[in-house]
Amino acid sequence: MVSTILQCDKPVICRVNGIRVGGGQEIGMACDFSIASDLALFSQAGPKHGSAPDGGTTDFLPVYVGVERAMYSGTLCETWSAHRFYWLGGLTQIVPVLKVDGRWTANPLVVTDRVLDEYGRLVLGEWKTGQAREDGKLLLGKGTIDLSLLDDAIEQMCTKLLYTMPDCLIKTIESLRKHKLVNWDKNRESNRAWLSLNMMTEANAGFRAFHYGTKDEREVDFVRLRQRLAQGARWNEELIREIAPWVVQPATTI
Questions:
Q1: Domains of the chain, first to last
Q2: For residues 110 and 95, what is the distance between their CA atoms, to the nearest angstrom?
Q3: Which residue in 108, 162, 187, 223 is a FRET match for 173, CA 20 to 30 A apart?
């Protein structure tokens, strides 16, 4: 799918509404443009759930946001808001989709009224905490979702692209895509093979934990896993059950 997007002879726009996490984030970054609801979420999930973001993130994300921010996202899997990802250069455009009392309202769960804190650190797009977050949840609950601005933004982008020379447009897109393709073409076969082999070990444990775990506990016991591997434990059903978050271990395997 990613290769098909990167080889498409027309501009590809990713319309984002909801969560763009893991493979969805990778598919989105393969596209040429991303236009998002400002309530959308962006993240990786691999190292938390038994995989590595080798379906595109390790190739594309450093191009978008720089190596250190890509390293932070890829390893820790913390969620970026649409405002933060837009500021970092990962999105073409964001639009509000929440209406409160008939007025468009920016995502009330994130900081949108200032760029830096008193120490000069970036806070735009950071998740609110404490009472500010609770107030944001109340405001979100009072509002309604209207995607008309998101649809309008997509149409406007298509119209802007329409008013260009077709051959020059696709040549420009193909040339700019090479910054992503140079890494993708170099790594895709070996990454695919590694991901397949990984299904026998960490992915087997992590995917099952995500599937069978509770809403609040969907990850393996990472500390116990590291301890057992240091003790020489082998990957088998017994180890997977030992580190699993579920109470009644299912008999089925992936």
A1: 2-97+147-162 (3.90.226.10), 202-243 (no CATH)
A2: 14
A3: 187
